[in-house]
Write the structure tokens for this entry.
Amino acid sequence: MELTLQNVGIINKTTIELNGLTVICGSNNSGKSTAGKALYAAIESLCNLEEKLHNELVLNYRRALMSVSRILDLTSVNKYVDFNRLDEEYHKNFSLLAVGVLSFRKMPEYDNIVEAYISLKEAVEILSPQLLFDFATKRKSDLPKKFFSFLDNFNESKEKALSFLGGLNKYYYNANIHDFSEKSVAALFSIEFDGQVFPVNKKTKERKSTVVISKNGEKGCTLSIYEKKDITAVVNERKTFLNNAIYIDDPYALDRLARVDEYSYIYRSSQDDYSHFGKLSRLLMKKNSSLIESSINKENYNSIVSKLSDVIPGTLSIRDSGIYYEETNREPLKVQNLATGSKMFSIIKNLLEKGEINFDTMLILDEPEAHLHPEWQNVFAEIIILIVKEFNAHVLLTTHSPNFLMAIEAYSKKYGISEKSNYYMAKRNNDGNTVDYICVNDSLSMIYSSFTQPLVEVKQLKDN
């Protein structure tokens, strides 16, 4: 599989082969993270589109329900109207509208979210001042003036609610996967790059970035991302050849994990779930696999986990009070207090135990050795190589460490995956503003030399 990037951030035009293990080296600000983010965004934005579209509509439906509930303001009169009787005789959504922001607790499950949206519209259309009056829980003489004032203004509120829902018709009645895929690509690239996907070189006239994923000459996806007023995307093909991408660039991700507030999904952006941190959070917070899946996973990764357990023998557990690292004969330790290097090992171990890393996975690791002692760098390098060998997974990693690179090279030879290993080095172009990546499989000495030069310079300074 190949990844081609053109005019993406600092990257001019480069093609990187992704066939097992891919290592990118280069100085700071040479686009290494850019390549990883672009690869992650291309794969993740086009995976499981039907499911994502459904989830997007479900989230929108819940927000719409909250908005309509606020417009109608039925909560102000729910103690005067028997909404449960209304539900029984007319429609099941009246009581949902009446309890307002708490309505998600009673929200029914819909296999067809369009059906749920139509049901909500029908409920609003049926409601009328007369219907509310007919189902009042008190005699007319006992009803307060504010109730009658509410009825006098209800039709105006109803028109506002129907107008609001009418604006959503096109999304529910004409949901199109291709249109959604382009919105998905634009949104995720915008999140991953914080809106700055485009060439850093001001002399580049065309504000367009291109990402292509291909395999054996077959183009799987071609993404053209344009900068106008907002980021837009054109997707010519949608096949990414893989259905899972995981990007890990920060072991402190464990510290930021928290129990999700029960109302938070109403207000957050759905795309946040698919950002690299959002996705990693969901995977780490997920419950463990079934017994059968766990047994299969253990058979597949037993040798890897045993090596991981030599470094980090405990496991992560999720409690109401937070996330803990638990080890036999030791007090549970909050992950915030776990050593930084141990956090990276814990993340990988957790993902392996849950079966999230497999043949269909692109695992992207941005300088994973940064917080590791050279001894643990060697162990981590061996684990990465075993993941590629045992699971046929794909790994793209960036590094600044000569020790880590040497360990990667040595273990790839030991475990016989040298032919599935590719090494790239950033080369700055003559314009001084852009880089390309050159394959150095046959000349790794170029990378080692770039690592050694700063050491030579500082040694000379020390000697002098």
